[in-house]
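Hi team,

Below is the intake form for DUF6440 domain-containing protein from Salinicoccus sediminis. Please confirm the fields before the structure is written into the shared record.

FORM ID: S-0412
PROTEIN: DUF6440 domain-containing protein
ORGANISM: Salinicoccus sediminis
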Amino acid sequence: MFGKSSESKESRFETEQVKSDGGILCHVITDKETGVQYLYAWGGTAGGVTPLLDENGQVIIKK
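The structure came back. Fields below:
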């Protein structure tokens, strides 16, 4: 799911596993082109992706 594409070129996204507990997997995904970070969570048959926000409700951009 994550990593290099089937075309063997570098992926636009970088992932870091931040938690794996009780059947729930959480990753922070960083878009290398924009720097925007997302939280990806999956457990059982459900999952989702959402942008990470700072205390002011602004999208977190990794520099």
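SUMMARY LINE: Residues 5 and 11 are 6 Å apart (CA to CA).

Thanks, M.
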